[in-house]
Amino acid sequence: MKKSEFAAIGEKLAAELPSFELKGELLVLVPIHHTLRGICFERSISPRKFYVWAFLQPLFVPAEQLWFNIGWRLGGACHAWDADSKNLILKLSVKLKDEAYPFLSGVAS
Fold it and tell me: Three-class SS string for the chain?
């Protein structure tokens, strides 16, 4: 998938999840304080499939890239999302609200 395709999916999801802002291939929970809390879209070996990560990254640890040490892939470790799937945004939105948001919002303070 191309960056523009991830951005289109991210824009639609951000409209469904008002606490998130789109930053490239990331949906970031705002405001950002001591921990980066977000959703990352990751390419798969299959051209039309991708993975979605929910992650936390403490900002007091110096790093120039994202680490997914604290987090998981939505839908399970091997679950890939199909970009051409009917109701993709609805399915992802439900998964984000049910799984990712409670995890990410629990680290607000």
Answer: CCHHHHHHHHHHHHHHCCCEEEECCEEEECCCCCEEEEEEEEECCCCCEEEEEEEEEECCCCCCCCCCCEEEECCCCCCCEECCCCCHHHHHHHHHHHHHHHHHHCCCC
Q: For the segment 64-97, what is each residue's pLDDT rounded down to a tens digit? A: 888 888 999 998 878 999 999 999 999 999 999 9
Instruction: Give me the amino acid identity at 4.
Output: S
pLDDT confidence band for 106 (50 / 70 / 90): confident
CA angle centred on 92, ends 82 and 47, rounded to 5°: 20
